[in-house]
Write a structure and sequence with these properties.
With 465 residues, the protein is an alpha/beta fold. The chain contains 15 helices and 19 strands. The chain folds into 3 domains: 124 residues, Methylthiotransferase, N-terminal domain (Rossmann fold, 3-Layer(aba) Sandwich), CATH 3.40.50.12160; 227 residues, tm_1862 like domain (pyruvate-formate lyase- activating enzyme); 77 residues, OB fold (Dihydrolipoamide Acetyltransferase, E2P) (Beta Barrel), CATH 2.40.50. The structure holds S-adenosyl-L-homocysteine, iron/sulfur cluster and FE3-S4 cluster (F3S).
Amino acid sequence: MREDMGQKKLFVNTMGCQMNVYDTGQIQQRMAPLGFEPTEDLAKADVIIVNTCAIRAKAEQKAFSFLGRLLPYKEQKPELIIAMGGCVAQQEGHKVLSRMPHVDLVFGTHAIRRLPQLIQKIAATRCRIVDVEMASAIASDDFMLGHASSSDVATFVTIMRGCDNYCTYCVVPHVRGRESSRTPDEIISEIEHLVAHGVREVTLLGQNVNSYGKKEGFCSFAQLLERVDRVNGLARIRFTTSHPKDLSEELMLAFDRLEKLCPHIHLPVQSGADAVLRRMNRRYTSRQYRDKVAMLRSIRPDIAITSDIIVGFPGETEEEFSATLHLIDQVGFDGLFAFIYSDRPNAPAVRFDNKIGETEKKKRLQSVLNRQEILTQKKNEALTGSIQQILVDGLSKHLSYDADERLVADALEGVQWSGRTGTNKIVHFMQAPQNDDWNQMLTGRIMQIMIEKAMSHSLWGRPLS
Ligand code: SAH
Ligand code: SF4
Ligand code: F3S
């Protein structure tokens, strides 16, 4: 497979978090010089890459079941190359080859930059390869300048790799390696490049952005945000994730100071019980968490706060679980992701006693979800009658098309668009068409919208501008 071999098709199934999505972009960019262009049709692919997630057992099972379904494609087309990348690949390594005889390549989370050579070698020799080597620091050629497709209004930029926190339930430090940061200059160049290609909003990614650059002696994360804020043409900045123990006053104050920084923070709490937090090795108490929330709100009263909760952590008693429900009420999150605790190989909690049964875990999950649904609805209702600034990300999905694939729109009412508030809430609105180029019309623009109605997962509004 050489550069002169013409167009080849690459299918990538992205199964994980935002970092995994970013990595898929890197994979596509690395493969482009070999003549690969993306396809969404498995049957047309010359290379299929499954970019996997290992965060919970279910995610890992999904990865293997998708790989299993690829066998008929390989039987049909023996020259097809099937590769497993991402966090399950890093975790399982050689074991994947024996479990999945039709897989040609297993490449870990630090091997993306070597992908072109690995694929070329397999195409030339039909060998099978496992590359799960990890490095402690980011090398200068680990990342390519991020790429944006012409329709991307908002995109991710990975600013750090790995995690050093070792929460006892978590697989990430084991599959993504030690924490390491990209240089500020590289990050700024990437953002400038993205903005030049039409991107209006970036989300800076790291498992714990608060410790950005500390090891390397770069600037603080708040100082990095300040530099990003100065990038001309960029409208909005978001970041994820912040570990509550490291959330500094300097960073909190950035929400007041920086014009482009959106008033939203994802601050995973995991549990409301101090004893559980201790067993999780989270290194903060429920009180300290609530104090940080109070401080954030005093600095930026309209800030939206979202979080992650794990229910059924080993040994979680009824009282401890109630403490989590209580914390949810006390804080009043704008949104919550709740997960059933899942044993992970390599994570210490797998060896903890007093595992909670599946039925009980499901019951606890449902209580959390029910509780939050009411709170989210209330938060959304409180916005009716307000004027919100929306960054339009495009036409709402599920619109109907006529036989010529033209949008069916009522000429009087217009078509339905969607966008997000600074607080990251989805807003839908109608706008009458003004010309034939629907997508060009509003996508990427900031609009003033009067919120008229609150739904449980989104808002409905009327454009004022
Ligand atoms: N670095 C981020 C989290 C990344 S993982 C942070 O610390 O905030 C995303 C979420 O998955 C975590 O916040 C946690 O709620 C959940 N999670 C991680 N490991 C899990 C496990 N073993 N079982 C269930 N949920 C888990
Ligand atoms: Fe996992 Fe904890 Fe690191 Fe987040 S901070 S990635 S939960 S070990
Ligand atoms: Fe992300 Fe899943 Fe890996 S959450 S870091 S893709 S384990």
